[in-house]
Amino acid sequence: MSPSPLFARLSSPATTLDFLGIEIDTLQMEARLPSEKLAYLKELLAEWGHCTHVTLRDVEVLTGFLQFTSQVIPTAHAFLRGLYDFESEFTTPFSCWWLSKAACRDIAWWATFPMEWNGICFISLQHCILHVYTAVSGTKGLRGFFGANWFSVRCPHCHQTHHIQVKEMLAMVHAILCCPVISRLSGLAWNLTNVGIPVHYQVRCTSPGLT
């Protein structure tokens, strides 16, 4: 009698387990990329570091794997935006485009940080959370409030023509300047009107300092 196909999925007692391509460590209470996937990521990014022009299929393969990887690499979602914007520029699946500057910057970030930032803690300590709400309006101004504090200022003239995401970051910086204690809180949630900055959108920073 041949063994059941499910038998191959059995694992002996261990403190680490591979689940859907993610390694779960019950001692460190951490989810991270297994070593073989981390090696593949490093090899893939090394190849892209020498690319000048690519096809839509190439970009889809890269962004698909990076999206999977970003589940266990802190702040990684924010560094897919340039690649997604570049991917949307393709008119046909067979066209070949030069890599945009934004896409190159995202690739450079991925080639630098994920190797050291591999892993997220899946059991976090409870903290008192301060919600900070910010919003921007074209060339008009920046505004926000947190607790009993609020601010409203005009957008600096030198930044009025910049992308809305840049202005969202300016509003965050202004909130910190108005109340420096924000940057030292252990529990902080940024609530932005622009979901193009996913790393800060309704994210709780549970380690000391602003990340």
From TrEMBL:
Name recorded for this polypeptide: Uncharacterized protein
